[in-house]
Amino acid sequence: MNDGTVTLPWLVFRQDDNGNRYRVGRYATRAEAQEIADTLDGRGHRQLYWVERLGAKDAGAAPGAAD
C-alpha cells in the first residue's frame, strides 16, 4: 500500500543524567538511527542514547530498564 506517507519506524531516544527521557528523532532505517545515536553518544556527555523500533514492547524504556 502506498498512500504517499513516509514510514519512519526507527526511533532514537536520550536519557539525561536526571533520568528524563526524550525522543530525539525518527528514521527510516536502523542503520541511520544507530549512526545518529552513535554520533550523539560520541560527544562525551553523560546522556544515554539508544535505538528502538516503533511499536516495540515498552518503547521509550531505557535498554535493560525492564529486565
Which key terms come to mind for this protein?
67 residues; alpha+beta; 3-stranded antiparallel sheet; 3 strands; 18% helix; 28% strand; globular
Description:
This protein is of the alpha+beta class and 67 residues long. It has one helix and three strands. Strands 2-1-3 form a three-stranded antiparallel sheet, with helices on one face. The longest helix has 12 residues, at 30-41. The protein is globular and about 40 Å long. The N and C termini lie far apart (37 Å). The model has no long low-confidence stretch (mean pLDDT 84).
Taken as a percent bin, the fraction of beta residues is 25-35%
Amount of helix: 10-25%
Shape: globular
Structural class category: alpha+beta
Number of strands: 3
| Number of H- or I-type helical stretches | 1
Gyration radius, in Å = 13 Å
Distance between the termini: 37 Å
Main sheet attributes: strand count, strand direction, barrel closure: 3 strands, antiparallel
Poorly predicted parts: none
Strand order, sheet with most strands: 2-1-3
Mean pLDDT reading:
84
Order of helices and strands: EEHE
Summarize this, please?
This protein is an alpha+beta fold. 18% of the residues lie in helices and 28% in strands.
